[in-house]
Amino acid sequence: MAGPRVNSFFLGNSSGVNFSIILSPVDEETGTLQLANCSGSKRAGDWNLNVTPGPNASKVTISLTRNLQLCLPNATDCCTAPLCVAETLQVLACRDSVVLAHLLIQAEIYANSSFTGNVSENATTIPNQAFQPLGSCPCDLTAGACDVRCCCDPECTPELKELFSKLCFTGVFGGDVNPPFDQLCSSWSMGNKPEWFPFLCVQSSLNNTPFLGYFYHGSTSTPKVPSFKIPSQTSPGRLFTGYRQGDPVMTEENEYFTIPQKSMAGQCVRSAPVAYLQNFDVRCLTSRASYKEGLPHDVRLNSGTGDFIQQSVVYRTITDPGKFIIESEGPRTAEVLCQNVTFAEHYTFLCKDKNIEQINVTIFLGSLCDGEILTQRFTAKFLSLTSTSATELFGNPGYQVGKPVRAANMNASNTSGSLNIWQPAGRGLCTSATYTPVLFGLDSFSGCTLEVGIDEDCSFLRGNVTEKLDSLIQATHVGKRNNSSHSDLDDWVKIIRLDPFNSNTSVSTGSIKGICRDIPANLNIRIIFAEVGAVQGVPRQEILAVQISYSTIIWQFQCGLICENTTSLLPITAAVQFIQVPAQPPVPLTRFQMNYTEFDCNRNDVCWPQLFYPLTRFYTGEPYSQCLAKGLFLAFLVLLAAVMNNPWFSELWRSSLV
């Protein structure tokens, strides 16, 4: 119950049911609940009963009708005490004088304490705290009385101040809220000042102080923020000289060509530009209510030389919608609305050198209804017209982030291999999970679950789990580069496999029912890569080594009250980690660098070896002439300080003052 109203629901058919409310159904002498009868009405005292019927449930609302304001003098219809209402109610649902259900309500409602009187409109004026302290006398703590030792208290008379005039509070608490700062020339008498203080002190009034006043911002200049708009082309002829890897593909209207893609946060971006020579395969979840169409497929694209090419679109009907649609767990309504939507779009860009020659688009359509979740798939692949295979052999030969890692099985006649992780679907079982390739540069973690019985043999379970994990790695080698040739073994690195069980480790057979040890439930894939150069400013990355290892766990059967004829779920996972290392081993540290770390600029805030860096040609923060002038002036100040610290200069200075 919240406030003077309470809601409840009567489940079932409410036709012919009479609802009533009874006030104070508890016997005051015995404290027991009185026997309920169906002779009540829908109003009792200050309470009203309202019923909203429905097909399967009826909403029952009990509300209080009295005023909850606290009584003022000579006022009626109000609460005389803070505890305004303390009553017990009983709601009955009867049919033919037979009680079907009852609800007991104990109401304790306090009076509304909101202030309803007149409010003064005289506002306190607060001074500008930048130039005047808000509290000029912090030690003035008692209103209308003199605070002892608080000499700035206006309530203290001169006679009272004489009693503690020598014991007044000092500092900010004693009222000195704007003390002179140490850099003022008037602070010379404070002592402990260096000899050069008169030459570098500040002449200023106390109105300009670090304790009060605004900061001095100096002159400001308007920053030149680059515009996010695409610059318009001046010449109507050839707009481009060709695409480079990573350049956005442009349309005829000089706009980005967009296809839904995944962002760094894992969310689907519907208007993501397509980058040249960067393949992707993404899946986005949507429903019929949130479904939106993308760019129309009659948009012409810039080939890279100023010419425009039309998309070649082929429409097909989806044959197995169960692979894309997830049924909603909520109840289905009587009338279900459906809509013809796009299930998948596959784009194939045929390229030659820096230009796009042809675009083939395959679109799969299907029906999406209310209460269903659709997994849309969008793919883009760039192929070379001069290549005989489906693998592109142009552009940057190294791996780019987001591209699949190439794998090969050199022990088979067909050398094509695969390096995958799981993509669970439905309940997440391994029997229904599909595969997705490992993407370069993207650490990933996936898994699925196995149904295991309580009588499962541990040796059989280890073999089954190992077989499931090995099905992800159908390869013996991994390509160093994105264009590694199958005919050249030097273009591939061998996968280093660390078996889950070696000959020196004894594997427990598991004599306890429902418990198995040393289950290799985790597959770890570590890929070491390095940057070995750049092509047109884009880093060229190569894979140096690949290691596969297993992590074992102790599996225990989990069940409820009954364990017979039930199965437990065993999760198995696969993790991919990319580790970047330098292309060349770092230069070893010398004995001087290891012993004298204060000269290491990477481990200290002060870098003495770069003391004169602003005077070199490598410093581009200011013109070289200004840097040289400032450097000579600094050298003059150092020389002047050295001369002034000489004893004979002090004697000469004193003799000149005499």
Automatic annotation (TrEMBL):
Coiled-coil ranges from the UniProt annotation: none
Example of a GO biological process term: protein localization to ciliary transition zone
InterPro entries in alphabetical order: TCTN1-3 (IPR040354), TCTN1-3_dom (IPR011677), TCTN1-3_N (IPR057724)
Presence of the UniProt keyword Cytoplasm in the record: no
GO cellular component: MKS complex
Residue span(s) of domain Tectonic-1-3 N-terminal: 112-221
Source taxon at top rank: Eukaryota
Subunit composition and interactions: Part of the tectonic-like complex (also named B9 complex).
Protein name (record): TECT2 protein
Source lineage: Eukaryota, Metazoa, Chordata, Craniata, Vertebrata
